[in-house]
Design a protein that fits this description.
147 residues; 4 strands; 21% strand; alpha+beta; Alpha-Beta Plaits
């Protein structure tokens, strides 16, 4: 009998919980934030910082002006490597976008900006190869604002 009561309690609790999918923001329902976590390779933090400032930020600015995203910020942990919570990344780049549709188009928009800013294909390849020696991708997250 205790087992049945437990199962009934779980079933009733499940029925009482609203459908969380119905609460998800719609495509035009507000800003979306795309977060890219990167880890500079050992000994490459300064070089990766330089890469962001001299190459990535130019591409970002072109993409922003083209309406690909609203703003971007790059942050680094203030206590690099001393907290288990941040031990897996050294750079976090967060893009604020108009909505989910813009978030889905972010990659293509950044690629187009890269071609505009660095029209020489050989130079784009060198930049890509250089970035691969400086950092590793950790993860991507997509966030929405709490309303």
């Amino acid at each position: 009998m205790i087992g049945i009561r437990f199962v009934l309690a779980i079933a009733l609790a499940w029925l009482a919980v609203p459908d969380l999918r119905a609460q998800a923001p719609a495509a035009g329902d507000g800003p979306v934030y795309v977060a890219y976590y990167w880890r500079a390779k050992p000994g490459q933090t300064a070089a990766y910082n330089d890469y962001i400032q001299t190459i990535a930020e130019k591409i970002d600015e072109d993409a922003r002006k083209a309406g690909v995203f609203e703003e971007v910020v790059t942050v680094t942990p203030s206590q690099m490597g001393t907290s288990a919570a941040i031990a897996d990344w050294t750079h976090l780049r967060v893009f604020k976008l108009k909505d989910r549709a813009a978030a889905e188009a972010l990659g293509k928009g950044l690629d187009a900006a890269t071609i505009r800013v660095v029209p020489d294909e050989a130079q784009r390849k060198r930049n890509s190869e250089r970035s691969a020696t400086l950092r590793d991708f950790v993860r991507q997250e997509i966030w929405t604002a709490l309303r």
